[in-house]
Amino acid sequence: MRKVFSRTKALKPVPFHYCPGCGHSILHRLVAEVIEEMDLIDRAVGVPPAGCAVLAYNYFDLDMGEAPHGRGAAVATGLKRVLPDRLVFTYQGDGDIAAIGTAETIHAANRGEKITAIFVNNAVYGMTGGQMAPTSVLGQVTTTTPRGRDPSREGFPINFTELLAQIKGTAFAARASLHDPVHVLKTKKILRKAFEAQMKGLGFSVVEVLSPCPTNWKMSPPQAFKWVKEEMVKHYPLGVFKDVEGGSLVD
Amino acid sequence: MSEELELMRGTYAIGEAAIRAGCRYYFGYPITPQNELPEYMSRRLPEVGGTFLQSESELAAINMVLGASMAGARVMTSSSSPGISLMQEGLSFMAGQELSAVVVNMIRGGPGLGNIAPSQSDYFQATRGGGHGDYRQIVLAPYSVQEAVDLTYKAFDLADRYRMVVMILGDGMVAQMMEPVRFPPMRSLDDLPPKDWTITGAKDRPSRILRSLILDVNAMEEHNWKLARKYQQVERECPLWEEFMLEDAEMVVVAFGTAARVAKGAVKRAHKEGVKVGLFRPITLWPFPSQELKALYQRGQDTFVVFELNAGQMVEDVKITLGSGPQIISYARPGGVVPNPQELTRVFSRLALSRGTS
Lengths: 251, 358
Fold this sequence. Notes:
heterodimer; A: Rossmann fold; two-stranded antiparallel ribbon; B: Rossmann fold; 15 strands
């Protein structure tokens, strides 16, 4: 019989703790598969965030080192400067990268650090119980926007990846989504492009991934996937915003 | 030691000593009075194949240090009081993750933006850990440029041996003054102690995790006790101090860093005037040389003048060490004021008069 599927060696053989319908489990596997397919398991160093994915090191069978909340890009800078031939990636949520870690991320991009930021956008602070994130959409009800996000009070959802694409040191910037199998496969291709940009030494790369959080959105998993597709994509268009190699891997 | 004596300012000398100790990575952000240290590193590190990076903030700098340390490098940063405050988050994480690095704090008068004059007002912050959580860092307080060189060289070994952050605590005086120095030899990177805990890619070994998150309370308690045992070991093995003209002393001045430099002059002057005072100078502020200070009390010293350039911080450690037995007097000068030796000598003379000993 032909073997058509096997577990990636870049993940430990343990069950995820993530909620049913959470995007982290899918994205962990995509990242791990790409690292294995690029033959980088023994040359990869990952930096997990504060947030739900803080325990990512329990799942990735890679060298992993924790960063304080938001400081992933700075920690990855230190790692990569010492280990210039390794794959160094951060795995960060929307609050981590686009609120508390804004300065570190923008300046790492501006220096053209050869690191990859995997930016999981689920429009809430998940671990802390569903507070407003910088990426919460207008009108979105969260535990700290009980009347819905109003731009006159809470400002606007931030399109952080477009912002990073403007920066000269950024080699690759794209937004993907996990809302259906087609887009899951596309996400994987985009992750590979970002890692390749790093390993070619082209500069900073970022992949934003729209990801469902059924628990904090108070939805069933199917509702949550539908909300990503119908609401989040409206605010956060998918596609490649920058590719210094001029590729055309767009949605 | 090299045979050549070189006239050098403190900041440059610390930078050169770090490089000779095997430091090849420096991350930092400008702040007075230590700007010449990053400037020196930006020139010198590329000459030895090292990396200098000017960060966007002290917050970023300390986290770059954290990353480089996880990768196993000898790495340092430097700053002054407000910048060191920003670094406390990273310092706490590094203590939790047991990472080694050297951090230089050239203290300025505070609180807040304060001024840029020599001060010792960060004693509490340095010796109590500074950031959140139950941790310590080794604190070395040089009082001359030569000692700044020797302690910086030693700091990297201490940091690696104990997997701890070592802080060099000085001020604008130590940073800016020029003195003749001799440098220790350039360490070969091949001779540095191997590290079996770094994250460099899991090649031919199981993958590793460096973290401070330990959700299980029993495991977290055990981790804290492990750190505490390590700190106890440091307290046993690492205290450094100097005793000066204590043989026939009738009172003891306790001072460190720049204050000790002033105090040494004052002690010599006082002797000429017939006032017998000696100096006890802690060189490690943590671990505080408690046993050695206590030994002085046990040998009959009963008057201790704690002279420091702050509103009275180290005096608390002296009180903890000596209890209520001896007379402990705080002579504290905050705000960036550095009294001259004559002023301090007058303090000793008045005290001697009031005791009727001379």
